[in-house]
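Researcher: Structure for this, please.
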Amino acid sequence: MRIHDGEGNGPQAGVTSRHRLKTEASTRSAQSRASLEDGNAFQVISEDVDVTASSQSILVIKNNDSTKKAVITYIRVKTIGVAAASVDAYWTLNLGGDYASGGSLLDPTNINTSSGITALNMDCYDGTTPIVTSGTPVKFDKNFSANDMVTYNKEGALVIAPGGMLSIDFKGSTVAGVAVARASFYLTENGGT
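Model: Predicted structure, token format:
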């Protein structure tokens, strides 16, 4: 069987012995596409935040863009020198609420060095000074881990809508140690992927 080019250019499509069209494809992750094709993929890291014996935001990402959503692809968290994991020491990921004050403003890094695009409307804060939030964030993940790196591979399923916020919090059981959080994300139009 032959399938001819409908444009009259002469190419023919191959068909397998099982009567299926021969095809080839090249695939890449959405983050890779956003970085390579759009130059629009970023990482932000909050380093060495002193742990307290209460819940504290280690990294806050606030999307202030009116048309773009932030698609989170990876989150990594780690504590160093923290007391062993217990019911009193854990990480939480939270959506919603609003940033009020505190922390130090961070600049997300574009991971495509030839891009020149910045994440202008993304406000990211580390927890070097206590971050105060308002509203009622929704906790959607909780992990009991001390002195291990935990990676959340969200593969783009975690989306911060325009005006939305993600907070990565750690609840310590003592005042010893530091916490580190990192997030990778790309920006896309509100209706896009």
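Researcher: Any notable elements?
Model: The mean pLDDT is 85. The radius of gyration is 22 Å.
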